[in-house]
Amino acid sequence: MRSNHARLSSIAAISTLLAGVCLDPAEAQNGAVKTVFENYNLVGTFAFDCSKPAGPDNYYFVHRLVDPDHAQRDRMGGAIKRDYVFLIDQALAVSPRRVAIGGRRVDGSRKGEPIIEICRVEPNRILTELQTISGAKVIADGRFNGQPVGWSNRCGVAPARAAQPRAGAPVVPPQAKGAGCRTEKFAFDVALSQGTTANVVSTGGAVCVHTVAPFHPDQVQFTGSEIVKQASNGTFEQTGAFAFKYQPRPGFRGMDEYAIRVCGHTNQRAGCAVVTFRANVR
Q1: What is the CA radius of gyration of the chain?
Q2: Domain topology for 169-281
Q3: Closest Cα partner for 119 from 36, 194, 177?
Q4: What is the distance between the terminal CA atoms of the chain, rounded to a whole angstrom?
Q5: Concatenated DSSP letters for 81-94?
Q6: Alpha-carbon torsion (197, 269, 41, 124), positive or negative
Q7: What is the pLDDT of residues 13-59, one digit of tens each?
Q8: Cβ distance 150 to 139 under 8 Å?
């Protein structure tokens, strides 16, 4: 835990970055990180494009509360690739649309270095206007190396369902009358790294669409997903961050199998679970 003096010094440094804004460091230190994050709706998963998987050109930023005085940001550079962990121990409400946060990298690149950010917050999106690492400006006026940083958009999740014993479940979109694919109910747990097998029936070679989301998005957050096993008798592709499509080979009848890996976390732990789809094509 950082000393009280170090926390006040960091908050004072935030104040010097805000031209025309006067903040009282002692008053700021008394404001819990939890309060600011909840008031500005900063807890959740954000990405440049939520319809695409996490990758080097489409980072996912996962914000979660550790305790009332700390929040954590994970930057995901892939479904299971975490670039760094940013532990936040200061958060100041600067204006109705701006917040300032401070803390240190505790894992990944530039580990141990202090970071200060000023962010513009709008409904369901965030823009980093300024960032310093170890006192040096990395982002200024919303630009990194002269290029716009861009907004990070909140990634939507399915509405919470009734209480379930596991931390993940399929979300099957409505299908047209007479559609020929059915997926039996299944559950998996990313935090405990417990996977499952889902039975699928495709009648007449119909396309099967699979989309996964947490049962309880207020308790479990998914950070990424990817294909880990391709179908042997058809095509299996990822169509969104947590959406997949299986198309049996024309004329094929019999059993096929394909699998995905879903990663996520609760406030206590993180992990990944493999979901294997066993398709009976009739």
Answers
A1: 22
A2: Immunoglobulin-like (2.60.40)
A3: 36
A4: 60
A5: -EEEEEEEEEEEEE
A6: negative
A7: 444 554 433 334 444 445 578 899 988 999 888 998 888 888 888 89
A8: no
Q: Are 209 and 181 in contact (CB under 8 A)?
A: yes
- The two structure tokens encoding residue 68: 């009332």
Residue 253 DSSP class: -
Enter the tokens of residue 181: 């694919």
Q: Give the containing element (helix H, strand E) for 37.
A: helix 33-39
Amino acid identity of residue 257, one-letter, is E
Give Cα separations from 226 to 24, 86, 211, 236 (angstroms): 46, 24, 12, 11
For residues 126 and 136, give the distance between their C-alpha atoms in angstroms, rounded to a whole number.
Answer: 22
Adjacent-strand bridge partners of 237: 245
DSSP one-letter code for 188: B
Residues 124/153, Cβ–Cβ less than 8 Å:
yes
Q: Answer yes or no: are the C-beta atoms of 250 and 72 closer than 8 Å.
A: no
Which residue reads 């804004």 in tokens?
Answer: 21
Which sequence spans correspond to the domains of the chain?
4-154, 169-281
pLDDT, tens digit, for every residue of 61-73? Answer: 989 888 888 899 9
Give the integer Cα–Cα distance in Å for 259 and 229. Answer: 5
